[in-house]
Hints:
heterodimer; A: mainly alpha; elongated; B: about 325 residues; mainly alpha; about 0% strand; globular
Amino acid sequence: MTVSTTSANSSVKSGWWNSRTFRRFVRHRLAALGVVMVAVLTVACVIGPYILPYNDLYIDLRARFSPPLTGYHFLGTDPLGRDIAARLLMAGRISMLVGFSAMILSTLIGATIGVVAGYYGGRVGTVLMRFVDAVLSFPSIFLLLALAAFIKPSPIMITVIIAITSWMEVARIVEAEVRSLRERDFIMAARMLGLSNRWIMFRELLPNAMGPIIVAATLTVARAILLEAYVSFLGYGIQPPLPSWGNMLNGAQQYLQSAPWLAIVPGVAITLAVTSFNFIGDGLRDALDARSDLN
Amino acid sequence: MTRYILNRLGQSLVLLVLVSMIGFAVLNLAPGGPLSQFALTPGMTQADLDRISAQMGLDRPLIVQYADWAWRLLRGDWGRSFRDSRPVLDVIGGHFGATLLLMGTATVISVVVGTWVGIKGATKRYSIFDYTATVGAMVALSIPTFWFGLVAIYIFSLKLGWLPAGNMYTIGDGSILDYAKHLIMPALVLALVDVAVWSRYMRTATLDVINQDFVRTARAKGMTPRRVLMKHVVGNALLPMITLAGLQVPTLLGGALVTETVFTWPGMGRLFLDSLGYQDYPVVMGLLMFSAILVLLSNLAADLLTAFVDPRIRLT
Lengths: 295, 316
């Protein structure tokens, strides 16, 4: 990720917070921070479970509700005596994987619908975009829960329904972008060369709309991780014993008084991950779109 | 203006039809379709299921079933709850007030706080305040609402003991103060995301207005900055915010669902989850449609309100 370095070396002037340069610098700093945090989280989730002394599924009823820093239970244990640190990292694998896969799937759906709607325009475009509006009329959590209750809640199905409820943003962005690109000369040239519509849409238009798509995709990861946390917290997402950040919080409320770490630890992990992706998305938006610099 | 209104109404109608189609599709996704409730009854044979299916009209073509379903939806016949056989609309109506109270309070909080933060950020651009508000908003958008609720309960109910941890009122104490005490924490938790969104948009809108000619003219006339802000900037910046308020309704409804769960607030969101737990699909479907219609109506209301307030639309 090169975003972090571009304007980072411009030196700080008098009234140091007062300049646009500083603002840009800070924004990129935040994006850099986001990249570092995501990297750290990823490495920890991939390697961590091999290093920790406990398995995430090992039940030790004598060690139930150990507070953080008891022996080698760095983050304490849960109501079954399982090590929270181990569960947190394994949960991170699943939550982030679901977030990423849902992002890829929803970007594919959204970009396809957006490019078709934008390129053909007219009746096809109107119908497709009205459909996007209609899906957006449902509060996504309501739709997500209704769908989740109807299916077998495997991680793959959860990923699919998260994608089904979050592709609309991308579709709108791509449609708007393609609609403006459509009239440009290079598309006219492509048409005159006799290239097929499919080639023009996926080889000419989509690559030129890549900037906004990347930004939207990054923000979609954040959104997907949050949505997974919501459904799993409510008991309709990833099912135990498979841990996810959301389902670790499921049931934490009843132990809030006696074992607050059960609620605090996974929540901090979710917030960290989601904030990081939002920071990266925001930084990318600044880097890829000169207009956003104006405000 | 009449033309604009008619146009907008037509749009909403088209959306309503599309929304109902999606709703119908989801309904038919239920395992075993609408018959699932009977399939689990002991002693149920395939012949019985077929008979019920014919009775309920499920053997008709899908398009006929949809038309029938949509027509009953329009007449207010939304089916009956599996749980207590009450009409779905009555069940929803019994929970709607609590959600409206919660969402209304949260909206007021976020409009007041968000507007203030946004204007202050725009007028003191690139100040430490502006910077903190921008980053703060991004973090606020990243915190899971339910977790924020848990943390708030931990701090304000368990540790400090200032506020009740849940429910809408204390049994036997129906005073307004008691309601307010129960309302304030969930409303603030629900408002968090909205404050963040509102302040960011308000900041952009204010910056847009500040750079316009009439503001420069007002300043050139020698008006004090404060009066320029109050008289010329704020009103104009708030105009696009009406649309935003409408657009925020789905987010707010989703947030209300989790907030109500954490704070055991007896609203629509908790009803939705309870009904899911009981596999009470008529109520689940009813709430899904109800919330989507609510979103459509609030967007319509926001656009019409903007049209009435904004002379640029009103006079065309």
